[in-house]
Amino acid sequence: xxxxxxxxxxxxxxLGLVCLAFFVAFVRLVRGPTLADRVLALDMLVTVGIGFxxxxxxxxxxxxxxxxxxxxxxxxxxxxxxxxxxxxxxGPRPEQRYxxxxxxxxxxGVRLEGExx
Amino acid sequence: MxxxxxxxxxxxxxxxxxxxxxxxxxxxxLYTRMHAASKTGTVGSGVMLLAIAFHSGEFDxxxxxxxxxxxxxxxxxxxxxxxxxxxxxxxxxxWPGTAPDELAGHYEQSPAQPRxxxxxx
Lengths: 117, 121
Hints:
The structure holds 2 protein chains of 2 kinds.
Chain A (H helix, E strand, L loop, with lengths): L2 H29 L3 H26 L4 H26 L7 E2 L9 E2 L7
Antiparallel strand pairs in A: 1-2
Helix pairs in contact in A: 1-2, 2-3
Chain B lengths: L1 H25 L3 H27 L2 H31 L32
Helix pairs in contact in B: 1-2, 2-3
C-alpha cells in the first residue's frame, strides 16, 4: 500500500468517524434536560467541527484552513463563557433539578428541595 | 512515511472525538458528561492539528498548529470550569452515585447571585 493511498483511506475513515461524532453529539443537544447540557453539547459540536476542518486541511493541502479552525475554537470558547454567565445570571429553574436515577433507585427525575430522598 | 504518520494521527484524533461524543450522550449527569467532552474532545482536536503539522511540514503551518493546540489546552479547562460552576450554582444536582459532594452547603442557593460562602458561617 503506497503512502498516498493510505492517507486517502485514512482521510475517508476520519471523515466517517467525525460525521458520526457530529450526529451523536447532536443527540445530546436535542435531549439534554438542562440548558447547561445543551451548552456542553454545543461545545462538543465546535470541537467536532475543528476536527472536521483539520481533516479537510490535510485532504486539500491548504494551510489557510488552519486559521479557520483556530477562529472557530476561539468563537466556541467565548460562546461557552457567555452562556455560562447567562446561566448564572438567570438563576435556578425547577426543571434544572433533573437527576438521572441510579439503577437501584426506583424513583426518577425531578426532586425539589425539601422532598425526602 | 510522513503520510503514514499523518493518516494514523487523523484516525486516532477522529476516534477520540467520537469517544467524547458518545460519552456526552451516554454518561448520567452534566458533570460526568463535561469530564468526557472537555478532556477527550480536546485531545481529539489536538491530535488532528498535530496531523496537520506533520503532513504540511511548512514552518508557518507547524507554528500555527502548535499555537492552536496550546490555545485549546488553555481554554478547555476554563470553559468547563465556568459551565460547571454556573450549573452547580443554579441547582443542577450531581448523579446520586457520585462520591461525596465536596461543595454541598458552600453555595447559597439564592436566585440572584450565588456566591461562595465560608464554611464557618
